[in-house]
Amino acid sequence: MDAKEISLEEVKVKPVVDHLNDLLANYHIHYQKLRGCHWNVKGKSFFTLHVKFEELYTVALTTIDELAERILTLGKPPYSTFNDYITESTLKEIQTIGLKDTDMVRALIEDMAALIEMERAILDITADAGDDGTNDMVNRFMQFKEKNTWMLRSFVNED
Question: pTM of the prediction?
Fold first, then answer.
């Protein structure tokens, strides 16, 4: 399958796919960071953050699947190796063992800000390509992170 099968121009879809693959790689790093925070959070905020981190990594996992499936819908292969994720991601891994709970939250806020920035760029690219399906999907991802960024910033009293 290629993009013309869903009434999109192949030449306009290539930048969409490239950016979606970059977003996919970054989401994998973000997902693993969320898992590490979930597993390693300690202290007075344990019960609150343990549940919140699980919610966030569950949504991130669904997002990863949707991104990969959208790339396939556009007729291209998604990144699918850890090497791809680590090499292509601008987000970086962190050691969550022993990390203070508020530092975990701040690291996730930084990730979400970077992901939102990538998603805003994709919205411009999808608009140019006439790819409303991808645009709607990415916009939904972005809205979720915008709300959760506000919540996490409030948690660390940085709202």
Answer: 0.95
